[in-house]
Amino acid sequence: MTLPTPSNPGPFGHAQRKNFLFPEGFTQFNHGSFGTFPKVVEENMLGWHRKAEQDPDRWMRRGLKPALEMIRGRLGEYMNCDKDELVMVTNTTVGVNTVLRSMKFVPGDYILQLTTSYVSVDRTINYIADTNKGVGIINVPINFPMKDHEIVFRVEQAVQEHMAKKDGTRIRLAMVDWISSVPAIVHPVKALVDMLRSYGILVFVDGAHAIGQVPVDLTWLNADFFISNCHKWLYSVRGSAVLYVPKRHQHLIHPLAITGDYNNGFENEFAWNGTQDYSTLLSVEAALDFRKQYGEEAIIHYTHTLAVEGGKKIAEILGTNVMTPDDDHQVANMVNIRLPINNLEHPKIETPQYLIELMQDKYNAFAPCFKHNGAFWCRVSAQIYLEMSDFVRLAHVLKEIIDDLNAEEKA
Ligand SMILES: Cc1ncc(COP(=O)(O)O)c(C=O)c1O
């Protein structure tokens, strides 16, 4: 079977636009931040929503829990784990807070993270340290380009340096990304999990971007905790994520909202968060069906290849480089391309707002730009509804924007 590629997209590329809700003239280059979903998934979500409204009592008291169990079953099959180790939450931020705020940290406990942690994850870790006396944070500096083995080496070095202090403290938990946000990089997650666990450290994998971008096998990964959004790359409706807690840790973890299901079993505690609309969580069913229709391998192959080739194309047009030119495996569906700005301190790039408004209002196309390791970068997301011609257009948009900024500097 030949898989779709950017030069032979088959059912992907612009042929997919009709399956999504984009208006004419808008191109989505930032699937990574908030995701988006096909029309059939939206219809499925509305179907669950209407089912609840037709007989709210029957639904809330009898329908909801079996429906959530069905979704956990489908996700368990998809990620190779027991469905009873999975619970649904609305997003990764909630999942991270759920685990970190459930755990009882004691004085002398440290939480380790990499400096590429997502902002709300980093802030949550800081909140834990601020509100639990004697809890510290270890930030491991990570700047790209950096090879996989070097990342593992740096993290292990930080662990060993901490242990060498022999001050009676311990690294209790490490937070590691599977795919970081900015810069978007696939981390050597399995090597990090194995290394950190070998030191007796609990490992929480932030897989916000993982499911749908890379194959996820939770039995293989063997992490202590794992969270992934479904609403980013899996194509479910916004407000759907899955939290993995293996049985050995379930007694430690409770949802952020304690309800009448407190102490009524791990799955039950998470199946009822009080009265709300649960249809976004249930839309995962249709997202998985949509993916099955085209084939998991075909989707992942197309989007990854488009990210790698499209990123190199943009860099060629700009006369720059992608962040990890020799390590295409560090790219999943999001690629970082260097922007040739002359002055990194240009006032218009001090905050993201100027470029957000310019790209959205003038070009009807937006991709986040950010500073990292002494350079200015743009993160571009590949998706099944994009083709190489979109990347070429974006390259010219970026070139025009940067040329204008550079010209202003000279004037
Ligand atoms: C690595 C990472 N972690 C956590 C999050 C938070 O996800 P959410 O806003 O869906 O809670 C994001 C969002 O982009 C992310 O990129």
TrEMBL record:
<protein>
    <recommendedName>
        <fullName>Aminotransferase class V domain-containing protein</fullName>
    </recommendedName>
</protein>
<dbReference type="InterPro" id="IPR015424">
    <property type="entry name" value="PyrdxlP-dep_Trfase"/>
</dbReference>
<dbReference type="InterPro" id="IPR015421">
    <property type="entry name" value="PyrdxlP-dep_Trfase_major"/>
</dbReference>
<keyword id="KW-0663">Pyridoxal phosphate</keyword>
<dbReference type="InterPro" id="IPR000192">
    <property type="entry name" value="Aminotrans_V_dom"/>
</dbReference>
<dbReference type="Pfam" id="PF00266">
    <property type="entry name" value="Aminotran_5"/>
</dbReference>
<feature type="domain" description="Aminotransferase class V">
    <location>
        <begin position="67"/>
        <end position="339"/>
    </location>
</feature>
<dbReference type="InterPro" id="IPR015422">
    <property type="entry name" value="PyrdxlP-dep_Trfase_small"/>
</dbReference>
